[in-house]
Structures are given as structure tokens and as C-alpha cells.
Amino acid sequence: MDKLVNCLYRKPEALYRLICFPWAGGGSIHYAQWGKHFDNSIEVYAIRLPGRETRSKEPFMQNLQQLVDEIANVLLPTLKEKPFAFFGHSFGAYLSFATAEYIKRTHSMEPVHLFVSGASAPHSAARFPIQKKSDLPDDEFLKWMTSIGGTPSEILTNKDILQFFVPVLKADLRLVELIRYEKPHMKLFSCAISSFDGKEDVPHDLEAWKDLTSAEFTIQKLPGGHFYLKKPENEMFLISYITKHLENAEIYEREDYWHKHHL
User: Fold this and answer.
1) How many domains does the chain have?
2) Choice among 89, 113, 204, 226 that is catalytic
3) Active site residue 190
4) Residue 61 sits in a domain of what CATH number?
5) 194 annotated active-site
6) Residue 260: what pLDDT?
7) What is the pLDDT of residues 104-141, one digit of tens each?
8) Helix spans in the chain (H)
């Protein structure tokens, strides 16, 4: 569990767990720090993937299903303990979706809310650019990375760090580029989905996420580019938004329980 999950702020009395999935090349630290901003009703689990941080010696996964299998198998006991929600940005949005889809299909469980950010829906044609980014030579790849923002300049100018950073990032992107989903004939989820994006980011097909759920769907666009969520004011907006929607989910659950047992 501790290998996969970084939880800096343990909250045993929490009503919910928010499980956060990293962006391509990302570690667990950014989301693990979110734990201090939420009140005691929400405990944050940040997913730590192979090939980075304390798992830097482990080989990268060769396909997304391998990652999903590991995450689902490790998390399953805790997912049964209390309601949970998923948050993922960019690559993390696809990984959170794939994990949610897998546990729904195999265990008939789903998050109370799926929060996805900076990504077109998995079945959208908008996902397929002419050239795969993971195939670019390193110098062109770094130019592209610089253009979308969010990568600290100390990484982009330090050759030693780049030797570690670029392979991790390309490995994650390769997994995303291999994903192929058809538009579902039936709604996959009955939980609400909220989709976020930076107003200055390249346009994503957020609307298509609506195809995946029979419940409420909302879009929020915030100031900034692809890594808009690193801005403190946007981070605070996300934390407040997530808190409000999980509290509302609790009310709906109580009402649903009452209806089932009293009508």
C-alpha cells in the first residue's frame, strides 16, 4: 500500500477518500500536499507510479491495464471501507477513468464523483493528433514541453535531471497514446462527472465526458494553460469545489438510503 499510495495527512475519521492520479511524468508529492487543505472529512491518497520517487528503480509499465491492475488490486480493500472519489489531470484523467471503469466492470463499485482535468474524453476523436508526442526526438519533445508550460525551468535546463525526466514522461504519454475506447452504447457510470480545463490550454473535448454517465455533468474552465491547477488560486477553487460536491454526495446518499429503506 505505501509503495503505491502517498498519504501525508492521515485522517482515520474521514467520511471520504479522494484518490488523485498524477499527470504524465508526475510524482505523488503535489497531490499528497492537498491533504493539508481539506478538512477532516476528506483524506487524500496520491498515487505513486513505477519509475519515479521511491519507485524509481522499477520498470515502466508497458500498457495502461498493467497500471490499472496494480492500482485496483492495492486499493480495493480501502475502497470498500468508505465512499471515494477520483481526481486526475491530463494523463491522470485517463488513468483515473480506466481505473474507475475497471472496478465498475469487475467489482460493481464506482466513485461517488469523477473529477477529470485537462483531457478530452477517452473516446473522443480530438485525442488523436497527427504525430504522437512520445515519438518526437528529445530536443523537439522538450520544445513541446516548454510550449505547454508547467515544467519547472530548472528541469528543462539541467541535463542530468532531463536524463531521468524525459523517459518517465515519454513512457506515460506512450500509454495514453495506446488507449482506444469506443463511445459506449450504455452509460458506464451513475456517478457525477466534473471536467476542468485551463482557459488558455489547447482546446479539449470536455463535452464528450458527458457520454459516460447518467448522472450530473459539469464543465469548469479556469484561468491559465495546461497546468492551470498549479496556480494557488485555482488550486483553492478545486479544493473548495471538490469538498462541496462530496458533501452534496453524502446528502444524496442519505436520501437514497432513506428512500430504499422507508418506501
Assistant:
1) 1
2) 226
3) no
4) 3.40.50.1820
5) no
6) 45
7) 999 999 999 999 999 999 999 888 765 678 888 888 88
8) 29-32, 64-79, 91-107, 138-148, 153-156, 159-178, 232-262
